[in-house]
Amino acid sequence: MHLIITGGTIDKRYNELTGAVDFAPTSHIQTMLAQARVDTTPHTLTPLLLKDSLQLTLEDREAILTTLQGSHSNQILITHGTDTMVKTAKFLASYRIDKTIVLVGAMIPYRFKDSDALFNLGFAMGALQNLVNGVYIAMNGKIFNYDDVAKNRTLGLFEAVGV
């Protein structure tokens, strides 16, 4: 399994000096894996970016693509911000890569009380090990095909668009 970190809400923190929600110098993902006791699952961790997904550029998406294409793993987990997660999933799917790719994020940062981050990460790791090749989004305890999902900004969750 190869985890590619790109940032998003899952990795944000409250900066007490500025009062802003921003990124720490390093990702929280390794800490989350240890807390969930899944850090012993064989994996490679690539901290690629720490960006809000609204700030991702085509060059950033190409860097994600290059990283997963160069991976020796057939199972790729990408942490990603929820605002443009579907856009990145569609971008990656357009390359028809013969791997299982799951994008995951959080609506509330890992460091915040009542965060969904730890559950989403563990759920995505479990799902990744049981899916066939393709591009998926794992959010809210569900797996979605990249082309049948949207973020419902009113309800704060992901849902199938074909429903």
Provide a short characterization of the protein structure.
With 163 residues, the protein is of the alpha/beta class. The chain has four helices and ten strands.
Kindly describe this structure.
With 163 residues, the chain is α/β, with parallel strands linked by helices. It has a single domain (2-159), classed as 3-Layer(aba) Sandwich (Rossmann fold). 25% of the residues lie in helices and 29% in strands. It has helices spanning 29-35, 58-69, 85-93, 117-128; strands at residues 2-7, 12-15, 20-23, 44-51, 75-79, 100-104, 134-139, 142-145, 150-152, 157-159. A hairpin with a 4-residue loop joins strand 2 and strand 3 (20-23). The longest helix is centred in the middle third of the chain and has 12 residues, at 58-69. The chain is globular and about 45 Å long. The mean pLDDT is 94.
CATH class: Alpha Beta
Unreliable runs, pLDDT <50, ≥5 residues? none
**What's the CATH superfamily, by name?**
L-asparaginase, N-terminal domain
Structural class: alpha/beta
Q: Which architecture would the CATH scheme give at its second level?
A: 3-Layer(aba) Sandwich
Largest sheet, order of strands side by side?
Answer: 4-1-5-6-7-8
What overall geometry do the principal axes of the alpha carbons give?
Answer: globular
- How many helical stretches? 4
Give a short account of the largest sheet: 6 strands, mixed
Note the run of SSEs as H and E.
Answer: EEEHEHEHEHEEEE
Query: What's the total count of β strands?
Result: 10
Portion of residues within helices: 10-25%
| Mean pLDDT over all positions | 94
How many structural domains in the coordinates? 1
Rounded to the nearest angstrom, the radius of gyration is 15 Å
CATH topology: Rossmann fold
First and last CA, distance? 31 Å
